[in-house]
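In the previous chapter we treated chains in isolation. Here, by contrast, the input contains two separate entities that must be folded as one system, with a combined length of 454 residues.
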Amino acid sequence: MPEHMGTHIDAPVHTTQGMWKTDQIPIEKLYGPGVIINVKEKVKSNPDYRVTVEDLMMWEKKFGEMPRHAIAIMNSGWSDKYPNKTQIFGSTQHDNASSFHFPSWHVDAVTWLINKRQINAVGVDTPSTDFGQASVSASFPCHTTLGRNNVVGIEYVANLDKVPENGSTIYVPVLKLFDGSGGPARVFATYDDEPNKTNAAAILANPTSLFRFAIYFSMILLCEIGL
Amino acid sequence: MPEHMGTHIDAPVHTTQGMWKTDQIPIEKLYGPGVIINVKEKVKSNPDYRVTVEDLMMWEKKFGEMPRHAIAIMNSGWSDKYPNKTQIFGSTQHDNASSFHFPSWHVDAVTWLINKRQINAVGVDTPSTDFGQASVSASFPCHTTLGRNNVVGIEYVANLDKVPENGSTIYVPVLKLFDGSGGPARVFATYDDEPNKTNAAAILANPTSLFRFAIYFSMILLCEIGL
């Protein structure tokens, strides 16, 4: 099984020597508050769309400042195209990368997430954290920026419509492959299905609702129990 | 990469035709309250030890009735022996299964967990959910009982000393292998590092401690976001 297949991560070492290999990534970097950036409308008219800093600002306008150490994932609606290769790559020439058309992140947005919000990982529901047309110039600025900053990339995420844009916790439990440059992960999210019942005021008014309350950010310790 | 290597699961179909394959296991069955059964002392004098119903009773005496849909894992201390094959199998004859000596579950305890506590998964820090000497009679009662009841088995778990015996949540995010009889998983646990601050009385007395509070069992919804 290849390391970069299906839903998988790119370890920072994938682009930048000396950075974390798959088995070296601290497990605390493999989960975090979920930040879903929905660009489905924008992508409809532009398959070469790249998520902008403005898109991130709009998210914050709606939900408040992003939590630190989040997992930010673009929802472009692209996963509806799986497993049709021609649709996924936006091209009938599957061996010609410069013909590819699919959306991803703009390097400015990735840089902002790293510098301003100490992001844990950046993901896409497309084949790459750099958009399809990045191959034309053969420069992959998002990949190299992520790698250089020891930030994990996640590719081929799916089912993002099921996750709230704010308030989930996303887990990226990549297999701990020795010496790996990436690896497959069963990515999943948890969230509260009754968020209206979980604010502090409601709990203080009604002690029984305590047992419906979960602040995921207080799940402070993760502990590996695999080999 | 083989399906049954390193820390991995056995899908119910592994022993019982018609039961869940790896990709068919509902994701809700792949996490749950962690129940760690510590039998390290008993194993020291008996490498053929099998966890008994009495061991489960002792856990409940200490922590109260087990939550439903838990992930119960034996902590025999065996993971200290990784990766020494002779120590893991308790035998120098690695090709002769009937010479193996390592602990696991007794089928009566597994049956009790299924019937009385609706367990989600049963795990071991050894090579098999049946003890080493099961090979002598070539009967693997725990495997078949788990399979017949569509319950997941987990083998080669490690680092169990780091997880509290009660109060964690354990995740078993096995790769979603199509048609699989098992598969590797980056198994991990979450738990509160300040449990004393998280009881209801303390919270009601001090509203700021709300933000340290997590009842993991209220993380009701899991959502797959992989392929």
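Chain B touches chain A through 54 residues (CB under 8 Å). The two ends of chain B are 19 Å apart (CA to CA). Compare these points with the single-chain example from earlier in the chapter.
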